[in-house]
Amino acid sequence: MIPENERQIFKENFDNQNLAPKPFLQTHELSMSYRAKKAFHNISMPIHFGKITAIVGPSGCGKSSFLMCLNRLAEMIPDTQISGHIELDQNNLMKNGACTVALRKKIGMIFQKPSPFPFSIRKNIILPLMEHGQKNRRILNEKLEFVLKKVGLWDEVKSRLETSALQLSGGQQQRLCIARALALEPEILLMDEPCSALDPLSSAVVEDLMKDLSKDYTVVVVTHNLAQAKRIADYVAFFWVQEGAGSLIEFGPTKEIFENPKNPLTLSYISGFRG
Amino acid sequence: MIKSAQSKVEYLVTYIVWGLSILLLLSMIFLIYKMVGPGFSTIRWDYFLSEPLNSGRSGGISSILISTLLIVGVCLFVAIPIGLGTAIWLTEFTTSQSFLGQNIRRSLDILAGVPSIVFGLFGNALFCRYLGLGFSIISGGLTLACMVLPILIRSIEVGIRSIPSEHRFSASALGLSTFSQLYHLILPLAVPGIVVGLVLGIGRAVAETAALVFTSGYVDRMPSSISDSGRSLSVHIYDLSMNVPGGESNAYKSVFVILILLFFLNTLTMFLADRLLARKVMNE
Ligand SMILES: Nc1ncnc2c1ncn2[C@@H]1O[C@H](COP(=O)(O)OP(=O)(O)O)[C@@H](O)[C@H]1O
Ligand SMILES: [Mg+2]
């Protein structure tokens, strides 16, 4: 946990320097490779508190891998090598012995393919809560209702909480996964192309939800959809494969990236010439 | 033209497939009829309840049934925890490419094909002599456990590996511990593999003859404890049909019993696996 006084100092910094807010999460020369393949290389990038940061770029440029490093999920894949470090509220979260369970409670993740557990809708949300020590039935039920309302699923599922989550439609499953992550009260949400496996209508629902969530959470979203990035993001990071590994080409406020990109690669990508 | 030629081929293939299945089914029915028929028509309830007399020519099989259940019980009691533990270790704590994991897997596959007589001699040397357990139900059960473990471990492992990795990623992303992932998600989803392993393992254990002759012996009286020697059903059938003139009709009755026993044990396995594990997940 972050000591309360540090958090206070951080908040003051944030309020005082609105133009250049201190990053909440910051990677320092982060690199990662799979057994045979470098995924991305030397990425130093800030994630700002309470903002939506969109990561865009062509397939295979390491966006998903980067995201999986932020909650240390990438370590689960055998034979990956990760170097550099990640700072969260001034703590190095790559430290050996840093508690991944607490970290992952704080940083929730949504995957490209909706992946509810083969449990009932209720158990999908309650099991992680119970795992993190919440045993009180009443509180569990309150949280269940709260997060399902938050993702706009409550009215659709309140009469069938005991049925299998796999019976829901793709868009509903994805919203259930978001609710499941929200139930743990994370501070940061990592979303890996959360709309790309969904039909256009569900996709729009999830996009609205992301916008809504950014009021209470720091969101990092990978997206293929430049228009979506433009609509919802506060900051955009543009990834591109250079020398066989993904690199961060440009990072900046959305307006700047789209209207006045500094790098010619960014310009050609956002204007649809490449990628 | 083309279409009708295609549909002719399709019809032909359909007929062939059906024909082969029916042939297979008929031969199975014939086999079971031949094995079970003679026993079924002569068996009486007291066959289950009385002890064998006159080397099994008359009397029943109560002591043999008890010995069999005890041997299989000892075998499963030892094999299930070790099997589950090893399979979990192989899947969760080694990668499919790691040196140790790969070699353990290869050894298990070789062991699964080793003739049972070799296990019998090994069990005799290790359990009966070296560990001083003598010819006993426990020696037999432990030897069977060694035989069954390779199949059990590999089936459970395949069952666990077939679970989509998304489940693990989302579970870890939610901060679920390895233990609760196993308990709530992985093992319940691996139930088909676990059941296959157990059914194959139980089949092998109940059918085993050679390994038991060397380890649990062939004394046909009622065992007083698991350190007593005991004769299993398969050994009984073997003895009646090969060594006891006039034992044939009782051998057939025992064949009938062994099939019933297998059916019962397999059903019980599926029931328990469903009750204890599979209920935790809802696939639809
Ligand atoms: N599990 C994996 N094992 C080996 N290589 C991988 C694995 N996952 C991704 N890669 C490789 O790493 C690179 C980056 O992949 P990824 O992070 O998925 O990119 P993106 O999400 O931007 O499409 C790709 O070249 C991909 O082939
Ligand atoms: Mg990706």
Topology:
The complex is a heterodimer of chains A (275) and B (284).
Chain A: H1 4-16, E1 23-33, E2 38-48, E3 52-56, H2 63-70, E4 81-88, E5 91-92, H3 100-106, E6 107-110, H4 121-131, H5 137-150, H6 154-157, H7 170-183, E7 188-192, H8 200-213, E8 218-222, H9 226-232, E9 235-242, E10 245-253, H10 254-259, H11 264-270
Parallel strand pairs in A: 3-8, 3-9, 6-7, 7-8
Antiparallel strand pairs in A: 1-2, 1-4, 4-5, 9-10
Helix pairs in contact in A: 4-5, 4-7, 5-7, 7-8
Chain B: H1 2-42, H2 46-49, E1 52-53, E2 58-59, H3 62-93, H4 99-112, H5 116-130, H6 137-161, H7 165-173, H8 178-189, H9 191-207, H10 210-213, H11 233-242, H12 248-276
Antiparallel strand pairs in B: 1-2
Helix pairs in contact in B: 1-12, 3-6, 3-9, 4-6, 5-6, 6-9, 7-8, 9-12, 11-12
Percent of residues in helices of chain B comes to over 70%
* Order of neighbouring strands in the sheet with most strands of chain A: 6-7-8-3-9-10
What's the architecture of the largest domain in chain B, going by CATH? Orthogonal Bundle
Mean pLDDT of chain B: 90
Total number of β-strand segments of chain B?
A: 2
- What is the number of independent domains of chain B? 2
Q: Regarding CATH, which class of the largest domain in chain B?
A: Mainly Alpha
The CATH topology label of the largest domain in chain B is MetI-like fold
Sum up the overall morphology of chain B in one term: globular
The end-to-end span of chain B amounts to 44 Å
Query: Count the helices of chain B. How many?
Result: 12
The residue-averaged pLDDT of chain A reads: 86
Number of DSSP helical runs of chain A: 11
What is the radius of gyration of chain B computed over CA atoms, rounded to a whole number of angstroms?
Answer: 23 Å
What share of residues are in beta strands of chain B?
A: under 5%
Strand content of chain A: 15-25%
Q: What is the topology, as strand order, of the major beta sheet of chain B? A: 1-2
Which regions of chain B are unreliable across 5 or more consecutive residues at pLDDT < 50? none
Structural class of chain B: mainly alpha
CATH level 4 superfamily of the largest domain in chain B: MetI-like
Say what oligomer this is.
heterodimer
